């Protein structure tokens, strides 16, 4: 059986998240249903990881076993012609039969986007979080830098996470300009449930002067979720990139 | 009677345009209905100009006569608390009783935004136009520059325009980076119906090498709409700013 990998993006605003659920339409299900409609084949589309309701993706990677022999390039066109415009396939390719987009992911990059304004410009409302008042960017960058390296991120996890180990390696955590807005961009070898949204919520408190940048090191030491800031809302979050060993894909 | 002016933004995706129409919900009507619900007063909200279905605004200016004595600052909060999130009021102020947002507008700035990619990333689909393949930016900028000055823009107008004179003054027409995308930004003393979208459609043809930059000067000379490019789609267009004599506002 061939295994086809997809690189895809989506606007998560209208979905219950990546994963198939009882309470509404998911990205995964929408693509699986489209494949079935096109090729009369029921596939299971495995993603590199779940994204929650309202969270977006630019470079999600997913894979499925497919019997149909359609060429990868044509598959991209066929899917895009039949998927809603809030899901787009950028690329498809033949993957190793044992390619597993979740277990074999080496690194992921997430962006958390925010806009500083008094009133939210409508075109940003689905993709950015509004921050009123000023933020101290230097303190935020200082706190972000202290996340880098291998640490126990137990404090940076919401209840409901499924991971046994809470040790992760962050390779880079930076504050970047993003047109009119800004983004926190974090690359690491894995992320716990809500980890990036808790980091973002904590950074906003640090930027406002309500928390000291040293709170990050404290939380990495003592594992206490409650000393950090709130979980920032989903719409600011975007999965930017998933990286694999080259031979795997 | 007091006259209250508003500076506002909207995502035009879900509207038939600025102006009240039979065939669907307009921005104007949505705001007028909200004022009526809040203050039990039927107002007429006059905008600086119409925008078509799917066209957005960042800095539209509008004004209405209002009997209610609510302070301008509170009016902003009351409207934003009751309007849908795709319409936002940025500012309200007491205007001269004879303030007329359309007749007294001195300059307007429009942006036409586009993204060069093979597949449209979902989060850009409502606000950018997708351009596949490469564009020659130098030729586009050269053609844009030739629009500057006072000219007869008769060729740059769609049927349905209401203006008698087709002479307008363009103060600046430039190509700018806009995050991942780009934008054509044009400031002038007035714009004919679909003028910016015809300019944008023509620039894309020039960028692709299908039209020569000199086509702009030809069209300004001979007034022939048909030698220019197609009217670019509405979603790339945004009314950025409307300027008035300071004493007027």
What are the defining features of this structure?
globular, 249 residues, homodimer, Alpha-Beta Plaits, 2 domains, alpha+beta, ten-stranded mixed β-sheet, 10 strands, 5 helices
What does this structure look like?
- Two copies of one chain form a homodimer.
- In chain A, strands 1, 2, 3, 4, 5, 6, 7, 8, 9 and 10 form a ten-stranded mixed β-sheet that branches.
- Chain A has five helices and ten strands.
- Chain A has two domains: 2-103, Pseudouridine synthase I, catalytic domain, N-terminal subdomain (Alpha-Beta Plaits); 107-243, Alpha-Beta Plaits (2-Layer Sandwich).
- Helix content of chain A is 22%, strand content 30%.
Quick overview:
Two copies of one chain form a homodimer. The first copy, chain A, is an alpha+beta fold and 249 residues long.
Kindly state the percentage of residues in helix of chain A.
10-25%
Q: Architecture of the largest domain in chain A, according to CATH?
A: 2-Layer Sandwich
Name the assembly state: homodimer
The tally of structural domains of chain A comes to 2
Kindly name the structural category of chain A.
Answer: alpha+beta
Count of beta strands of chain A: 10
What string gives the helices and strands of chain A in order?
EHEEHEEEHEEEHHE
Overall mean pLDDT of chain A stands at 95
CATH fold category name of the largest domain in chain A: Alpha-Beta Plaits
Instruction: Provide the CATH superfamily of the largest domain in chain A.
Output: Pseudouridine synthase I, catalytic domain, C-terminal subdomain
Q: How far is the first residue's CA from the last residue's CA of chain A?
A: 16 Å
Global Rg of chain A: 19 Å
Number of helices of chain A: 5
Which two chains form the greatest contact, residue counts included?
A: A-B, 26 and 26 residues
What percent of residues of chain A are in strands? 25-35%
Low-confidence sequence ranges of chain A = none
């Amino acid at each position: 059986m061939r295994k086809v990998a997809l690189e895809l993006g989506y606007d998560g605003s209208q979905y219950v998240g990546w994963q198939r659920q009882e309470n509404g339409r998911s990205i995964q299900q929408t693509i699986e249903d489209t494949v079935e409609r096109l090729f009369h084949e029921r596939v299971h589309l495995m993603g590199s990881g779940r994204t929650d309701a309202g969270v977006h993706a630019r470079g999600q990677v997913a894979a499925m076993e497919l019997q149909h022999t359609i060429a990868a390039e044509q598959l991209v066109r066929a899917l895009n012609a039949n998927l809603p415009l809030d899901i787009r396939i950028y690329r498809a390719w033949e993957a190793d039969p044992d390619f597993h987009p979740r277990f074999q992911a080496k690194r992921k990059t997430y962006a958390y986007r925010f806009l500083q304004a008094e009133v939210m410009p409508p075109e940003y409302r689905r993709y950015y979080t509004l921050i009123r008042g000023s933020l101290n960017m230097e303190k935020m960058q200082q706190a972000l830098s202290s996340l880098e390296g291998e640490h126990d991120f137990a404090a940076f996890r919401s209840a409901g996470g499924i991971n046994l180990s809470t040790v992760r390696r962050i390779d880079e955590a930076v504050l970047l300009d993003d047109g009119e807005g800004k983004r926190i961009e974090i690359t690491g070898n894995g992320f716990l449930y809500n980890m990036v949204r808790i980091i973002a919520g904590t950074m906003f408190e640090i930027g406002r002067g309500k928390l000291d940048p040293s709170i990050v090191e404290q939380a990495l030491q003592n594992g206490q979720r409650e000393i950090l800031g709130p979980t920032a809302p989903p719409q600011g979050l975007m999965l930017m990139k998933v990286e694999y060993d080259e031979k795997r894909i």
